[in-house]
Write the structure tokens for this entry.
Amino acid sequence: MTPEPRQEPVSPPAGRSGAPALHRERTPRRRVLADRAARWVVTAGGLAIIAGILGILLFILWETWPLTRDAEVARTGALEQGEPPLAAVVVDEYRTHVAGLAADGTARARSLADGREVAAARVVPEGEGVEDPRATPDGALAAKLPGGRIVSLPVSFRTRFEGQERQIEPAFGEPAVLDLGAPAPGGSSLGAWAVRLDEDGVGAAAAQTADGQLAFVRRSVKENLLSGETTETVERFEAPVSYRLTRLVLDEAGRNLYGGTPGGEVLWWRVGAQGPADLQVVSAGEAGVSELALLLGDRSLVVGQEDGALSVWFPVADDGEGERLTRIRTFPPPSPRDGREGGSPIVAIVRSPRNKGFLAADAAGGLGLYHSTSERLLWRGATGVARPLSLAFGAKADAAYLAGAREIAGFRVDAPHPEITWKTLFGKVWYEGYDRPAWVWQSSSGTQEFEPKLSLTPLLVGTLKGTVYSMLLAIPLGILGAMYLSQFMHPSYKRHVKPVVEIMAALPSVVLGFLAGLWLAPRLERAMPAVLLMLVFLPAAVLLTGWLWSLLPRTFRQRVPTGTEMFGFAVALAAAGWGALALGPWLEAAAFGGSFQARLLDWTGLPYDQRNAVVIGIAMGFAVIPIIFAISEDAFSNVPPTLVAGSLALGATRWQTVTRVVLPTASPGIFSAVMVGFGRAVGETMIVLMATGNTPIMSWNPFNGFRTLSANIAVEIPEAPQGGTLYRTLFLAALLLFVLTFLGNTVAEVVRQRLRQRYSRL
């Protein structure tokens, strides 16, 4: 036998290292580069999105942060007083000149740059003097004269230009003198006094005479349009008063007169055709009233007292019995924590010409900057001015001047957003003209004396209200529709229905808002009783149809393709809707006396607005349904078929399988769908802008309107001055929207992960 040839194993070719080389197919270099480029692009896109969101957040924070700034008041210089010193001062808009009145009856205007005198005038003859000089809120200088008279001197600051240089020329007008009472033996017959006269000498004055009576003089001037002649009329009235008055203040219209007493009482007279009447007396405390001032608009009264306390008062409706002067806010005197022992008497109060703020000076040279609406002490400190005589606010509320016996000190005032506190943004505030504290958003008005009301609470409530009513419609229809489409509908119909529902999401919001506001709202107003009937008829029609379907023979039902029974339910729903519309007028006539809106107001006190939360619930629900439907349907479809088959194989019905197996397994995705729909509803702008009436009210009534944060931003931002309080408050509203959306998405992700972990073992 010849032996078989021996076969040696063949080794694979060795690589460079000497080890056997394995055969492998190499990936084309072009594909590797494409994969790397795609990875870089996707990574860069994701980082860009994150950076964009963070950039938006940082920009919003940058615009909002100045709302938290504190006020700053700093001394800028001083002007030496002459002899006699100016005891009452006013300053021009550009802070170049100061004008004042001295006790010798001389009015002088001086340059703040070099102190030189540029204008002078006398209000009394040589050798005579004036008593208690002061500046009026209108920028005039006034004082008491011997013989029971009061003089008012208009002051103007004329502006002219020499080339590009602005020149300010102070000027004094013609003094107007009002006689209020006969002189008392040995001197003036007047005690506390007040005057408000315009440049033509039209206005009123009041004073307490030597015999304790309250004298009131009203002066008017009528011009003959044909001849140009003017007729002056002076009316004098007296009213008894049993208090010694320390201060009087009169509003610009001459209709309200306020007084203070050494015992701390505050007196309020209504001034009518017959002079002061209807006296009201309230107590401000045990300390005497040392100063009174009216804030911008002449409705709020600031009361300064001997112990340094300050309080704000204004008339409030008193249970249908007229108005009652009520203490609204209190500013306590300085405490040892402020570096000062006790409080000194308030000697001067001057209102801000721009807002509801004011400055108050005390006898010890202390100065405080306050704001009434926000109840804020913005700044308080010592000025170094001995014996303060008068206080003036700059026309732009950016400067103040305190006149003392030896100097007139100037101060720079920087209080950019005094109206803003957490309370004014989210709490109840007692505004002028309101009978109680309230949440109010009203950013502007037709007058400069308007008190801005910037509470975000009505906007938050409106945002949640619109979201809740829209989700009441969108959640059940979106989730149950997705459940039926995924688990019960015939596949041939499913291919057509799902794209149609998803196309609904492409409808522009402005179109939905237009249809809701101009087409749907008036029809709902006429057919609201029918809508109420639909809430009963439609569920009843579904239950009745399902019960009738179960009564049909099993053999007949088995012949009907699964999922086609929806046509029977559609017919039943259409019939129920038609029946509700047909019976709506009968129900309105029988149960609501022919007018649903009138009966609603009589029974509940709730008004019916045509553009209301029901309209928004339908319109915005229509916009949110496709989002919830699409995500929920994907969640149902992603349930493993083995779970469904196993449940059916164990004898469970289709309904039991869907509710006990499919629904829990798909719950993470369903919850995500709901939260995404919630975010869509919270941020919706155009639908709520066009279909709610934009009324920022605090009410969950489904039949009235509301205003949301997003719609408010869209409405207000075009008119908001850049950098102003309203402008930055709108950015704060945008920050709240950002936070709401972020919290919603965070909660959705946390709950979704926990639900996924819980049902991952199924």
Notes: Residues 509-551 form the longest helix (43 residues). Residues 539 and 550 are 17 Å apart (CA to CA). Residues 72-440 form a domain with the Methylamine Dehydrogenase; Chain H fold (CATH 2.130.10.10).
